[in-house]
Amino acid sequence: MIWFIILASIGIPLALVVWRVDDWNRDWTTNHASLEDTAVRPELRPQIFTGAVADVADRIERWSEQQSHWDLVQRNDTEWETTLKMTRTTGLFRFVDDVTVQLRSAPESEGHVTMYATSQSRIGKGDLGQNPRNLAELVRGVNAM
Question: Are 113 and 51 in contact (CB under 8 A)?
């Protein structure tokens, strides 16, 4: 009976980790992610929004206030760009990842804002896919607002 308890206490957490790994080549050796034009998953590509940079930044700020694991740390506004520094804390072990969102509007593309974002783990060599999940959660959440 004791062996069953030991096996279950090791096997269940291990199975949960293995189940959450999305990309076995990346997730063990990389602790950062970015929204990139070449990403296979649409939610991991830079996003384009209609409106002013400040309005999109306000939208992201409102979304982050509704999320228990997300905190807005800093906001820097300029005429054509806003940078949001955020943190995302994991549920179980409370690891903190730094997320930087850049919103840019080019003068020639008035009314359109492009969102670029990066997520970086503070500790560890690999992130087990958490940073891409952070970015996907951010993109889905802001698109749903």
Answer: yes
